[in-house]
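RETRY 2/3 - previous attempt timed out on the joint model. Re-submitting the same 787-residue input unchanged.
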Amino acid sequence: MIDLSNVSKTFTLHNQGSAVIEVLSDVSLTVAPGECVALTGASGAGKSTLMRMIYGNYRAQSGVIRVGGVDLAQAEPREIIRLRREVLGYVSQFLRVVPRVPTLDVVAEPLRAVGVGSDEARTRAKELLAQLNIPERLWSLSPTTFSGGEQQRVNIARGFAHPYPAMLLDEPTASLDAANREVVLSLIEAAKARGAAIIGIFHDEAARARVCDREIDVSRFTPGLSSGSEAVERYNESAA
Amino acid sequence: MTPSSEYNFAYLDEQTKRMIRRAILKGLAIPGYQVPFASREMPMPYGWGTGGVQVSAAVLTPDDRFKVIDQGADDTTNAVSIRTFFERTAGVATTTATPEATVIQTRHRIPEVPLTEGQILVYQVPIPEPLRFLEPRESETRKMHSLEEYGLMHVKLYEDISRHGHIATSYAYPVKVEARYVMDPSPIPKFDNPKLGDCPAIQLFGAGREQRIYALPPYTQVVSLDFEDHPFEASKADHPCGLCGAEDSYLDEVIVDDSGGRMFVCSDTDYCEGRQAAGHRGKDLGGKDAA
Amino acid sequence: MTPLLSVQGITKRYGAHIGCADVSFDLYPGEVMGIVGESGSGKSTLLNCMAGHLRPDAGSVVFDTRGHGPRDTVTMSEPERRMLGRTDWAFVHQHARDGLRMGVSAGGNVGERLMAVGARHYGDIRDKAVDWLERVEIDAGRVDDRPTTFSGGMQQRLQIARNLVTGPRLVFMDEPTGGLDVSVQARLLDLLRGLVRDMGLSAIIVTHDLAVVRLLADRLMVMKDGLVVENGLTDQVLDDPQHAYTQLLVSSVLQV
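RETRY 2/3 succeeded.
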């Protein structure tokens, strides 16, 4: 389902003396339907960068990134958008939404985008929000004012609204209490059971052990974990 | 009265009259289309009928019999002075009787007596552009005419209905000519609009300040714009004439004293006098035609 | 799939000065494209060339018309191009007063495009106008009020209703949220997103506001000195900019 071969990534910082930073080189990996793979490695190893490349958010310098038959390294924007709408889900660590839109609509939006009717989409959104213990009185409010943990759960509800065949999860259990962590892990297990191919970053080792079938240490794709990596992390943060 | 020898026939020089006649012919060839012409300074202020006077000057021949009406009346200052002007500069015969006239210059009315073939009705036009009040750019309105983009004209009628519940435009009511050009019929009451179409006489429109001439040849199709659910209606005051008892003519409301007394009388003085001469009497003359 | 709009080599010069040069791209049905760049980068010139307001010196703007398939709108007759402007195209101006008739009621403003394509039933026109006012969240009770009595955000929403009432397929927007309060902007952006999704609209949005394109545009074109320096998926261009100018642009945005 997700298939990377010989993928590499460099950043060229034109406004900082045209410094060229090599982040990843020669990444090859495959994730099958129903499989969950964890990306591991020290901070700065390029886990998030790799995930963003698979999502088409970062551009690959070379190689092939194939998800559901589409090569994200070469695809036209509209193909990537269709892929993201129908095939490839992404739960990032940060919630980015239009201000003032009610939480219920934020969660229902991925379903509306694939043509699900307004009522049906909202029903599904309500189920997920209830499951993730977001109090009903908050559903009509914009999530921009919520606490970090609440925002993270809204983000997860949104990410799991549509049954994507492929999913990318960036720290889905971070900043969650035990009960909600359990809900998220069961959502991941359910996604696996229906055949989703999943790539995740988990600092939570117990969670990783429970849902992941294998681990890939990203630092082995990192050309000489050198002074460059900190600059990249900084760069990544400013871009996010 | 003899023509003053200092003036060319009908005041304007022959070159100017030729130029105006060319504009008139072009206007007749393209009914409803506004033809630009080089309007001349006339010995009267703008707004007093300089456009109409130039058109009349261009069409008058020594054999014509000339009539001038202002709001239907032959005896107002404006009508009298224009009639006198052509008596003195062209020496043409004049009349107040509509059927006897060959050229009639008018401000804001069409005579009640139906016009006939061979007659010419010359309108004085203050603002020839019907789209002006919604689209002030002349470059744009010209383009709209040439491309037949007339949606805006209905916006004006839409606004009327939304504000008043009906189309409240009661004069200068826009018309479409031969299913092509939208035309301002000059500020005639919309009561007169049905007389514009299928008329045996030639109708010429002159706007002096705006330098435009347009025309309706005899028997032209003229349709007043409207909505399917708000059709055009030619309306008038719901009274008979107080002097001649006519129920089919356009009426002026006249205030007769300081205590709110008023009467309704035909705006077409010739028509009213003709009926009175034939023995009709309205209620203000104690006649039996009184309602 | 046939592109809805195919722009090839659009060039516009103002004397020796270049407005925009050799711009080419395809826009597909349902796509929303943002064009960003600083003042004078040529983005508005390009927009006006595409929308038929300016005649380009070179290039073609091929639109997939309903009746006759792909047609070059630069060389088509003016009546045809103006007809497109009233039916399949819409143009949302930065300043609502440029896109509205300020002396005409809200209902008349919305109804104008309907009347321009031949609607002659007052009741139907008014019903449609009311429906559209509600869709852009303007109280139906304001249908007879003039836009001069509306707030800036309401005027902008009225302009959008007026443009969308004939069900266009392509909307050109020139800084649609410029000059509005931040809170009003957010509501307008949400409204536009919903309309674009529900009507399957394609749109080209010119703006200098990167937050606006991030929320509205699927893809992004970055212009500098009349040239396209970078284009691609919106979040890719903003998060992983390749060109020096784009990197500068992205890093210059103040973080809140």
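Chain B touches chain C at residues 134, 143, 147, 149, 151-152, 154-155, 158-159, 161-163, 227-230 (CB under 8 Å). Closing ticket.
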